Amino acid sequence: MSSSRPAPGPPNAANRCFVCGPENPIGLHLTFRLEDGACVSEFTPGENHQGYPGVIHGGMIYSALDDVMANWLYLRGARAYTARCEIRYRAPAREGEKLLLVGRPQARKRKLVEMEGTATRASDGEVIATATATFVVIDEKEFAGV
Asked: Alpha-carbon distance 41 to 54, whole Å?
């Protein structure tokens, strides 16, 4: 099942977001969708996303995983901020390799939501990085139906 409903907040609220904002000239321009209870996206890093030559900077992977987890909430009508995030890098990502991003909920306690994110290489399914994060929902009324 796929879902993409308008995001909460004022129109164009996330248009300048570094990861998903369509109006950010230096952004990643990732798009997110809901499928089978998860938030998913694809990211193909380029030469401008490198750290060491030929290896994608870990901060780019972190940013993509943070957003795939946050968008699980956002696409359901709840705005939230990352309170804590821990990431484990398992393999290097390379320029031009498509990565599959998945964010799933793990637990909820009032305004806190625990999420898990995974980045895998599309070509062979190797796990590039995993992340766990706690998000704080800004307005619990927005989150009531989730």
From this structure: 22
103: which strand partners? 39, 117
Tell me the longest C-alpha to C-alpha distance in the chain.
46
Q: What's the rounded Cα separation, in Å, for the pair 40 and 138? A: 23
Domains, the chain, with CATH or none: 27-143 (3.10.129.10)
CA distance 9 to 76: 12
Residue 46 one-letter amino acid: G
Token pair 């625990």 is at which residue?
Answer: 114
Burial 32-56 (b: 16+ CB within 10 A, else e): bebeeebbbbebebeeebbeeeeeb
Both structure tokens of 26: 């230096």
C-alpha closest to that of 92 among 62, 124, 55: 55
Helix (H, G, I), strand (E, B) or coil at 29: coil
φ, ψ of residue 136 to 5 degrees: the values are: -105, 120
H/E stretch holding 141: helix 140-143
Residue with tokens 């030469």, as numbered in its chain? 47
For residue range 46-98, list pLDDT tens digits in order.
Answer: 889 899 998 999 999 999 999 999 999 999 888 899 999 999 999 999 999 99
